[in-house]
């Protein structure tokens, strides 16, 4: 592997690992706020116990996730100094907003929520967990705004004297079409992730007869969120593909291993071959016209093939190889889509069992629901690979190549050493996180806390033992 490949591998490793925690933090913050809101409105002790229970999982996830996220920003100056110098005036703005506003909001109110149970009025304490949820969403928004600028640069100009991109319109960055649909997709994926995890934990307790009356309520909340959330995530993701087909046609063509231009185009559910060195794959199952619909929202839409796009890019940008890793693109898209469909079917099944009042008695559903906890993490990782690998060889679409963005002073040995340390450290953190999450997810619920005041002005007297 080249030094650039190793630098990419290091950033991919830290990004993928960090992104395991981000969707769960965003979604679980929202679901925990819903549980506490249900307790505040009804004063039913079951909701308070569930708030404490899933709030503990939220805190564990935030504690590990924050540490992994901080490493990423240092890599911009360490391995990608040329990139940072070129886009720093643009990329730095949303990152600064994320750190100074969103992350500050999330961390501050998380502390108030943790230590304010018996000190703050119930209404104020409820507001703190909602502020945590809003802070998580806002943090994702600013990060996605920066990343979307790399996919479709807008609101900038290149200073000819310095050769650096300069921000001219922050509103254009924050209303970037790729950002709007990408951010909405991330939020929905986060809700799906948290709802699946909540359903899995609830199903485990229902299977083992642990506080079934209480965990029936959390399972019901998870299914109520999961049914529309998973359906909307699939729909928004599909439209995001249409948006990206306009600005990054190479990404979409690679995701279909479509080497030759077609009109109309069939969608291959499965194929053999068609990778980086095979332009004639064996398409096992094809759905006529589906690729045209997914890529162009038209029944007979035209999808430009990789070979034609390569010729166009060479004419526009000069000699070079502009096709991303086709194997990664093709299977990342299908892993994300197929597992998303599986989650939707599982949620519909759960909704039907709820309606029939048979949820806690369906052993097959509860067994599958427990193991479904891994699905959203696989989906999110596949989606991240699809997005970032599909932009290659560009680090900023149409402006800067990844091969030109690496720090020239950082050698191969340095990257290998730091990558090895990161892999070892993240492996340890992963084991610690898995042990903590499994331990607390399987723990019995605490006894019902002392009754809270009937009015909303008193303190939230139910202290939780985090």
Provide the residue-averaged pLDDT: 84
Order of helices and strands: HHHHHEEHHHHEEHHHHHEEH
Helix amount: 55-70%
How do the strands of the widest beta sheet line up side by side? 1-2
Query: What Rg do the Cα atoms give?
Result: 24 Å
Task: Report the total helices.
Answer: 15
Structural class: mainly alpha
**Poorly predicted sequence stretches spanning 5 or more consecutive residues:** 450-456
Q: Categorize the overall geometry.
A: globular
Strand content: 5-15%
Q: Please provide the count of β strands.
A: 6
Q: Sheet with the most strands? A: 2 strands, antiparallel
Distance between the termini: 45 Å
Annotation keywords:
mainly alpha, two-stranded antiparallel sheet, 466 residues, 68% helix
Could you outline the blueprint of secondary structure elements for this entry?
Layout lengths: L2 H17 L2 H21 L2 H34 L2 H35 L6 H30 L4 E4 L4 E4 L2 H5 L2 H31 L4 H36 L1 H7 L11 E6 L9 E6 L2 H7 L9 H12 L8 H30 L7 H9 L3 H15 L4 E3 L3 E2 L10 H30 L25
Antiparallel strand pairs: 1-2, 3-4, 5-6
Helix pairs in contact: 1-3, 1-15, 2-3, 2-5, 2-7, 3-8, 3-15, 4-5, 5-7, 7-8, 7-13, 7-14, 8-9, 8-12, 9-12, 12-14
Describe this structure in words.
It is a single chain. With 466 residues, the chain is mainly alpha-helical. It has a domain at 227-408. It is 68% helix and 5% strand. A two-stranded antiparallel sheet has the order 1-2. The protein has a two-stranded antiparallel ribbon with strand order 3-4. It has a two-stranded antiparallel sheet with strand order 5-6. α1 (3-19) runs parallel beside α15 (412-441), α2 (22-42) packs antiparallel against α5 (122-151) and α3 (45-78) runs antiparallel to α15. The model is unreliable at 450-456 (pLDDT under 50).
């Amino acid at each position: 592997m080249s030094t650039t490949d190793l630098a990419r591998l290091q950033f991919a490793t830290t990004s993928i690992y960090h992104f395991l925690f981000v969707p769960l933090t965003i979604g679980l913050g929202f679901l925990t706020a819903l549980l506490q809101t249900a307790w505040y409105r009804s004063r039913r002790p079951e909701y308070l116990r569930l708030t404490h229970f899933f709030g503990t999982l939220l805190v564990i996830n935030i504690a590990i996730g924050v540490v992994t996220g901080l490493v990423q920003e240092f890599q911009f100056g360490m391995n990608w100094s040329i990139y940072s110098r070129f886009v720093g005036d643009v990329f730095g703005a949303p990152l600064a907003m994320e750190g100074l506003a969103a992350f500050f909001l999330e961390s501050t109110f998380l502390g108030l929520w943790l230590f304010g149970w018996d000190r703050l009025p119930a209404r104020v304490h409820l507001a703190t967990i909602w502020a945590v949820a809003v802070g998580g969403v806002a943090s994702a928004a600013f990060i996605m705004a920066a990343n979307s600028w790399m996919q479709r640069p807008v609101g900038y100009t290149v200073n000819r004297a310095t050769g650096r991109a300069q921000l001219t319109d922050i509103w254009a960055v924050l209303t970037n079409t790729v950002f709007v649909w990408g951010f909405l997709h991330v939020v929905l994926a986060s809700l799906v992730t948290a709802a699946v995890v909540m359903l899995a934990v609830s199903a485990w307790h229902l299977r083992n007869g642990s506080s079934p009356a209480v965990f029936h309520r959390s399972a019901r909340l998870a299914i109520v969120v999961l049914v529309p959330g998973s359906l909307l995530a699939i729909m928004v993701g599909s439209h995001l593909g249409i948006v990206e087909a306009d600005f990054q046609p190479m990404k979409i063509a690679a995701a279909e291993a479509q080497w030759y231009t077609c009109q109309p185009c069939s969608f291959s559910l499965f194929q053999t071959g068609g990778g980086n060195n095979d332009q004639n794959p064996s398409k096992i199952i094809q759905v006529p016209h589906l690729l045209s619909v997914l890529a162009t929202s038209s029944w007979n839409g035209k999808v430009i093939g990789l070979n034609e796009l390569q010729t166009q890019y060479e004419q526009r940008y000069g000699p070079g190889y502009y096709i991303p890793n086709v194997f990664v693109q093709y299977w990342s898209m299908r892993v994300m889509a197929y597992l998303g469909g599986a989650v939707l079917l599982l949620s519909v099944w759960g909704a039907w069992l709820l309606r029939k009042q048979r949820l806690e008695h369906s052993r097959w559903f509860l067994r599958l629901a427990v193991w479904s906890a891994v699905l959203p993490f696989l989906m999110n990782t596949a989606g991240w690979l699809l997005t970032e690998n599909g932009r290659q060889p560009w680090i900023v679409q149409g402006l800067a190549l990844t091969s030109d963005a690496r720090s020239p002073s950082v050698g191969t040995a340095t990257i290998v050493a730091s990558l090895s340390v990161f892999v070892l450290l993240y492996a340890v953190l992963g084991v610690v996180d898995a042990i903590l999450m499994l331990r607390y997810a399987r723990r019995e619920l605490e006894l019902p806390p002392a009754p809270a005041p009937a009015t909303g002005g008193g303190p939230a007297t139910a202290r939780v033992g985090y």
